């Protein structure tokens, strides 16, 4: 690191990149990123150029000595990197559109990271991330991989199991957003709130909540129940929880839990939307991205445009910068990330990937012992974990039977017959990105 | 036991009783039951008399010195008992009809032991069984309680948690039936087959299968897949498993697993049946029972009529006799029963009730260590266990919120909103048998 | 806490108290202790007055508005306390002299916190601490008990098991001292060193060591081996580790581990010392204390005298102030304390007391997940834990057989016959303080 | 197995062999051993001939068609074997003499299977057993290895960890002898007694005891205490347990536990014996063996001589025959053997070798779930397990540091300094049999 940090962003042509660049600029004094390599694939070259040029203008305006490199040569980029971030989308938005629309034909939820959609995103993504890890082992063995490619939990599980490169962290903006939203609910500033997060990615629970260090878990659950409220995030319908359910649950669910505790309602809503509009959320994102790239092309734009914050994944890149900052500077602050369990959630397997509060140190994240997940939620969490583990296996082996098993035991599918039908159609539809199955 | 064994059967007026009586008669030499007390409640008095008189005729014909006592006074019966069996139905068949029909209105499965129906059967049954245990602690502290009242797993869980009386065994005929059916599939006699059973009641898996002691697990799964077969029992539709699913699962599911791995198909089938016939299975059982009692009244009948074997729960009573025989005679043979886990299924909680192969000794059942349930099934099993635990709590506390929580996390419900609606209607419908909630 | 904090120090007449007072004075701005109650028993009244008056002079000189209260009325003191610290010695130094000298007669180590001595100190101390907890439940239920009375691990175990009051933390200065000493070995400032501590009190290991955040565990072990060094503390002979042993051990032992990995040498040394001098360490401490109190009586002394730092337990009180400060101000820094395990050491029982790095928050210490203790040490640690658990039981029940069992399984005793002899003599010797056994 | 069973006995020249031969003759009808191959090394050729000829005379007299093959060619013998038993002594009796005498110089117990002696026996034996397993994988992959070479627990641990061949069972006669002795104590026939055994080899406990199926654990412990008795076996001094200790322990220790709960007394006794006689037990065994072989040479001897029963390991071979019989005939009876834990002892590691009651089936031993070992013993058991694991590692790697670590943590050593001295002398003394260290 003698000449400053080298950061590599794979999927650098993503519309999120300006947030990442802004994050590094803001933190330059304490986190001197001298080289930021934006890497993409040939299909993403145009986007890479647009985003890369914006990044260069941003850096120039800010007056920091950060070099922006644009490349399609991943190996060149990875050489001697200090940190690697990944924000890829194998098959790009068209693949997401398939993930979100085909399942609906079979009366199944079409969603990017849960159910059938998440399953296929996992199958496409895991082999690519494994390749990246393999290259890192050779080219930058001391670098941390910070993955915010979804499904981040399943990807982390697969990498912990099958990659030699062990410096891997999965990152998600959900815990951060939940804290923000709970602060709003309480009408206090977010920094006064602390939540003990534990679970899996997109299946994380707030076990206990604190205001100025004082445990307010019970009051908060009552307030959520009383205001008939819920904790929202951008891309999930805002159905409220039954007050008595949320109180008995005893822990704060994340927005994605609606898929599991309001399965019927979420599915019905999605089917209705799709029938009405003929569009999935992926179509919508497609439009937003087009607009963003139109903005990014403006040679007068020299900073992250406000509109980016409207995008679902806002704060993702900020979270990544925070994490890199805390590692580089051994900050020992607390962040919620996806890592090996190691007993931090006492009733989940020791070697599983979990999403849990960690102390962030130069030596990486150290999970804080959260005790046992309560009886009310451990079953569902274990079931999703089993789904992730078997999907990871199938993603690597390309074993059809394993894939069918994984899909059948997913609680949003629960049918071997339907699972087979949707599996067959989607394997065919994503064939180009799933060579392991053919 | 100086004057021979005293056995008490609570719910003695059940149509199953003749099988039990036959079982004791057959085993009289090694298992000398001198007193069989059939106990029932006032609403069941007429049935008790019919069944009791048949029992007396059976005993007389067999020429064994077994005294048959009929009583409505449970405490009198329990005094100094050696074994107590329970086969009660709180609210009788009309309650079952409600359990099976109301959920259908909400698009939920209506079934006696799974989902909403099993939940309400549990709420009604658990307090009664706890009362019985309480009386046993006082009146016959050394007696074994052998419960075959459904939902047997949930009842065992509740008794292990809340009863002082610790000599409790839950019994089910599913493992026995599975062995019979697998033997048929293999065209061999059942005694040559041995299955390593582990899981929960109505959620038990055959982990490994043996023919003449040789492990044939893989061949058997292939055969099930090849013949597109399934393992049937009387009261569950005979949908077959997808061949690739069953092979990847790697263990043999029980018939009830169809509710969880073919949820859509099972529900659709049931809704269609109900629409067509306007009847649930409970209605059908009601008819069968009427016919049986008509037969039982015949003063010339002196043995168990063949027709009883058509009834769903066949072999239940035989299983109970076998179990009592093995305990009394310290037989150290293997039977599959519901007991405290104690590490026998290494990845389920130590103190949970599980259904597992046990060595049956005079000191009770000793579970055999089965290792860990495979990843593919542990999540679902833990979820059902969580459901059972929270239902047990709610059954005793009468806490509405806990009840709502239990119902919502049941994988056949998965909706807090729908759970609330069906809970409200059914609490009202079963009000007379659920005083704890009012 | 409206009028500032109320802190109660039980055993306030201890020679350590001036360090505690100095600690509170130094931190007054952030940690406004308005009332410090020093409590003692009638036998300690004179010391209490001497120390209390010194404390008053210290406060006056420092010009902080801290009220010093001296009392023999514990209940009055505890009323509405915010923090309670305990530094008692049941039976005072004469009891310690017995603890350290009688075992030597039987060829057993005489030591205050390990082996027979620690066992008897535990038997005398646990009931008193339980009484204090009981009073706290009534008089100051929200207060934290910070116990630095030895054997601190065993006391924490007993309180976690038997006290209703759950806000209990055990504190020891060993981890702090080890960090200091390792820093010296590395010739760096202590704040640059971080150690992952995990184990039990006086049986804690440094699992991994960091310099400026970088893992230097292997280098450090090599250096300890190379310099034929050891990590010392005041009151334990400085025997060095065998270089090959320490490297194979793979973790950094604490000074007290010499009793277990150099049992023969430590015992031989102690026996020789005792024969030569006719004195135990307790005798020596007795002298030091007399000198300290002579100093404390000097009306011109207005600050903590330097000589106090020569005393074995230096930094104990400073550690207590740090802990209280971090809780009160929700500092979320890392301190090594004795708390309930909750999975932080994955291969020790979930509910055991362990000594482990914790994040210190307003809601108390949150242990950091340390994973599993290595195979090389888990057996010994579990054995000491078993000893602590059974001693706790015996301390409360007064059961002779349990006491004999605990003593026999202690690895420094390992003989039922010798255990019985020394138990009988020492029960008699400490009779006045062990009413539960008579 | 078409032409009957082929059994291979490695170390066939052992003085125990006639018992084995007798066992096979007695069971011939149900267990048709057609070929018994006795294998030995060149140094044992003479003994092999003597024993082999006796075996032939025994078979002839009995009139069973069992072929006795004598060979020094292990590979030839192993080809297509059905069962392989091992009863080897690497370095023969002279090595045992060193194991038992050198430690005494350092004030350490000299014993064949515990402490320093057991450690070295393990180092010598493990590599040979691994070689045998390796050959079995190639030459008889379906055969069971039944090892009764000591230290049987450590050997089983090593084979479970490092051998590909998984059909391995460790066998010991201690549980069998304990049952015999407890029956004598109770003045009943042994078959009426059943003990729940769980622990490690030579560190097994009787958790519960049954007479005619009734739990008599408490009464039995009281009787052991009252009669000031102990459970003896041939080769261990008959020191009695302190009555109050044994009652508090709550479980029945095995004879070898005296080394851990009477360490001082056992060591003192051994030192005194050695000083008096100048001989260890090994010397004594040496004499006995010479006498036995003199007997075996008598051409008129056609059966197992009575004198063999005086030898310490009596019933070992009978135990082996019983085990082979139960596997071959899928007897599903209960025997206590050394196998992979798999949750049967819930608070020991899942994959560890343990000695525990198993159901013996054609598919091998299935451990019975024994629950958790009590707090009073789990620490010591885990410590011995850790010792076994690290010794296994050292035996294979030949790593000096690991060897020193293993020896230091052994509770009969407990000193890194003394461990180093005795290690150095004994490595040199056994150099010929420990090539991995040189």
From TrEMBL, chains A, B, C, D:
What keywords are assigned to this protein? Carbohydrate metabolism, Cobalt, Glycosidase, Hydrolase, Iron, Manganese, Metal-binding, NAD, Nickel
- Asked if the Swiss-Prot or TrEMBL record annotates the protein with the keyword Metal-binding, the reply is yes
Q: At the top level of its lineage, which domain of life is listed?
A: Bacteria
* Co-factor: note: Binds 1 NAD(+) per subunit.
Q: What is its EC number?
A: 3.2.1.86
Record: residues binding Mn(2+): 172, 202
Q: Which InterPro entries does this chain map to?
A: GlycHydrolase_4_CS, Glyco_hydro_4, Glyco_hydro_4_C, Lactate_DH/Glyco_Ohase_4_C, NAD(P)-bd_dom_sf
Q: Please name the GO terms that the record assigns under molecular function.
A: 6-phospho-beta-glucosidase activity; metal ion binding; oxidoreductase activity, acting on the CH-OH group of donors, NAD or NADP as acceptor
* Residues noted as binding substrate in the record, renumbered to the chain: 96, 150
Query: Per the entry, which co-factors are needed?
Result: NAD(+)
Show which residues form the site (Increases basicity of active site Tyr): 112
Instruction: Share an example GO biological-process annotation for this protein.
Output: carbohydrate metabolic process
Recorded hits in Pfam families, A to Z, give: Glyco_hydro_4 (PF02056), Glyco_hydro_4C (PF11975)
Q: Which SUPFAM superfamilies would you find in this protein's record? A: LDH C-terminal domain-like, NAD(P)-binding Rossmann-fold domains
The Glycosyl hydrolase family 4 C-terminal domain is annotated at 197-413
Which family, according to the similarity comment? Belongs to the glycosyl hydrolase 4 family.
UniProt protein name: 6-phospho-beta-glucosidase
Source species of the chain: Thermoflavimicrobium daqui
């Amino acid at each position: 690191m003698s000449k400053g940090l080298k950061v590599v962003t794979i999927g650098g042509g993503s519309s999120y990149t300006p947030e990442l660049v802004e994050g590094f600029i803001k933190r330059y004094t304490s986190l001197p990123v001298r080289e930021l390599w934006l890497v993409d694939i040939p299909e993403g070259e145009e986007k890479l150029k647009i985003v890369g040029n914006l990044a260069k203008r941003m850096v120039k305006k800010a007056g920091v000595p950060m070099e922006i490199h644009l490349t399609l040569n991943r190996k060149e980029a990875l050489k001697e990197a200090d940190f690697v971030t990944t924000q890829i989308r194998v098959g790009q938005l068209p693949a997401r559109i398939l993930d979100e629309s085909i399942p609906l034909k079979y009366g199944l939820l079409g969603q990017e990271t849960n159910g059938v959609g998440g399953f296929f995103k996992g199958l496409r993504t895991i082999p690519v991330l494994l390749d990246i890890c393999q290259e890192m082992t050779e080219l930058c063995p001391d670098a941390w991989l910070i993955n915010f490619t979804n499904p981040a939990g399943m990807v982390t599980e697969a990498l912990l199991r099958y990659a030699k490169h062990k410096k891997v962290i999965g990152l998600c903006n959900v815990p951060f957003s939940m804290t923000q939203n709970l602060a709003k609910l309480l009408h206090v500033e977010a920094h006064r709130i602390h939540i003990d997060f534990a679970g899996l990615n997109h299946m994380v629970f707030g076990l206990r909540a604190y205001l100025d260090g004082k445990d307010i878990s019970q009051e908060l659950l009552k307030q959520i129940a009383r205001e008939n409220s819920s904790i929202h995030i951008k891309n999930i319908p805002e159905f409220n929880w039954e007050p008595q359910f949320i109180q008995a649950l005893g822990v704060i669910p994340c927005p994605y839990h609606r898929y599991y505790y309001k399965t019927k309602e979420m599915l019905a809503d999605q089917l209705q939307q799709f029938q009405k509009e003929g569009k999935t959320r992926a179509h919508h994102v497609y439009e937003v991205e087009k607009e963003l790239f139109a903005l990014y092309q403006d040679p007068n734009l020299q900073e992250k445009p406000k509109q980016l914050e409207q995008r679902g994944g806002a704060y993702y890149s900020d979270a990544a910068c925070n994490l890199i900052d805390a590692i580089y500077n051994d900050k020992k602050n607390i962040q919620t990330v996806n890592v090996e369990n190691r007993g931090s959630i006492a009733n989940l397997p020791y070697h599983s990937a979990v999403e849990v509060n960690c102390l962030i140190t130069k030596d990486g994240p150290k999970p804080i012992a959260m005790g046992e997940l309560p009886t009310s939620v451990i079953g569902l969490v274990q079931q999703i974990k089993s789904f992730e583990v078997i999907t990871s296996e199938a993603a690597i082996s390309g074993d059809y039977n394993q894939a069918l098993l994984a899909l059948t035991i997913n609680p949003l599918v629960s049918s071997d017959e339907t699972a087979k039908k949707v599996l067959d159609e989607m394997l065919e539809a994503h064939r180009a990105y799933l060579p392991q199955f053919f």
